[in-house]
Design a protein that fits this description.
Elements: H1 3-23, E1 28-35, E2 38-45, E3 54-55, E4 69-71, E5 78-84, H2 89-107, E6 111-117, H3 120-125, H4 129-142, H5 146-155, H6 168-175, H7 184-192, H8 196-207, E7 213-214, E8 216-219, E9 222-223, H9 233-246
Parallel strand pairs: 5-6
Antiparallel strand pairs: 1-2, 1-7, 3-4, 4-6, 5-8, 8-9
Helix pairs in contact: 2-9, 4-5, 4-8
Amino acid sequence: MSEKNRQGKRSARERLREQREREKHSERRVRTVKVGGIAVVALAAAAGLGVVAAGRGGDSASGASAEPVVVGRADAPATLTVYEDFRCPACGQFEETFRDTVHDLTEDGSLRVEYHLVSIIDGNVGGNGSKYAANAAACARDADRFPEYHDTLFANQPAETDDAFGDKTRLLDLASEVDGLDTAAFRTCVQDGEHDSWVGRSNAAFTSGDFNATPTVLLNGEDIYGSSEPLTPDSLRSRVEDLAAAS
């Protein structure tokens, strides 16, 4: 990374930190909340993701489990567990705010991220975009391009009620923005819904579990995103660094 790019990234982070300090007592955001397995929209206190090479994390499209997509080193001292839906606006906000920080922490080996992809928006407002996008992301994982494609999907996230990701042609078109991803194998995986059953199991595990909103973000098992104290990129970095120092 060039020095110019590093300076630009630091500058962007400084502006974001200053903005969040000004707004942290008044900012509100929309989280997608599940009630009895159905997603509804609710207001929650403000709080605000990213990624290195991704692995399967032991999951199988045909197996009984719905293991997460894993990014980062297996021996990282801190594990960030993220439940998110590609159609969820609050998930998009979380990604925009924390992407660079999570990238940095995974790249330096201090953080491992486990992504649980769910499809509650499909059940709430209709369509298949959440499921199809999650399947396509799993196809990108198969090609070792999950982080890049994951970020591309959120960078091009449609409005919640717009089922643009329900059009698989759109998902394939976005693959052209990721080097090396737009291959015959990826296209077949997306078109055939190779990981649809995995997405279904992941969503079922979420809707029947203890967490009730997307994004849900846990650091070494502790919910750090839905608490009364807003999470910031700096506070996330500090928590991870403390865990690394203690390991």
